[in-house]
Design brief:
Blueprint: H1 5-13, H2 28-46, H3 51-57, H4 60-65, H5 69-72, H6 87-93, H7 102-115, H8 128-146, H9 155-159, H10 162-171, H11 175-180, H12 185-192, H13 199-203
Length: 205
Amino acid sequence: MPSRIVERYKRILNGEQKRFSPYEFEDAQYRKQKVQLVLRYAIEQVKKWTPEQARKELSIKDVKELKLHLVREYIDPPIEAKPEDVYYMVEFAYPYLPRMPEKQKVLWVYQEVLAGVRRHFPPLYFQSVKGEERAKICFDFMCRELIKLQDLRQLPRIFGKTEQAYSLLRKYKLKILVDTLYFSPFDMITDMYPELADPDLWNEA
């Protein structure tokens, strides 16, 4: 029964056994419930935290001390999580906790890339339809907040010159968009903003 997992976890915390049995999480039907029970016991009974506190406070050091690395491998981290991030373990334990909206998550990642907290975007971050949405959010932020464009119709003038376009994308860490998603800056702009595909706008560039 899944409820017995807590007794086994207590023995691990007490040093009576080193790890869970290799067969403990084999049954996919109960795996999630077992992992949640272990996490909730650690958070509520050992740390005496609320779920909200835990999401804010839990660190990689806590995970090691609480032996939660033994269940961490059964939780798929979100694409934006860095290796040392563990907040998503709390979200796994408490699915009802409100989550950060997708746009906010994308801007959090992008701002960490800009600040050098991350050396680069997560692998495959701009792949698939969701990746294209992330690309648009980042590029839109660059245009409105970093370059301070008043009107998106200025984009053909700025991105009509290839070298200038690449220089700008490199400066704001978004050259990866053209490298992985689009054939050229022109292709990127006209895909993101179809209203700017008018050849006359680019002839004036």
